[in-house]
């Protein structure tokens, strides 16, 4: 009987915690390349530090608490980071579709970066 009560308390506690959690899921796409999924991009919940990577289809899933405001940060090499503010619902899950734009670089920025790289390779070490 004692083991039954202990098992029942674990089930009851697990049910309570399960009722307070939601899922934030969605898909991440390249805005310029006909909505091509961005595989292995990082998705971060700014407030908790929890993060994940998108899968090969650009999909992601994170656990979240109900009725909480979050800022999601999406990042991928060569793209501008994007922050999205959301509030989880008291019931149900949140699904997002997010587009990232490729970073742009001006000719002047490129020329300065090349000049710095050239100076590093031609400067003798003393």
From TrEMBL:
Residues 1-18 form the signal peptide. The keyword Mitochondrion does not apply. It holds the Pfam family CarbopepD_reg_2. It comes from the Bacteria. Keywords: Signal. InterPro entries: CarboxyPept-like_regulatory. This is TonB-dependent receptor.
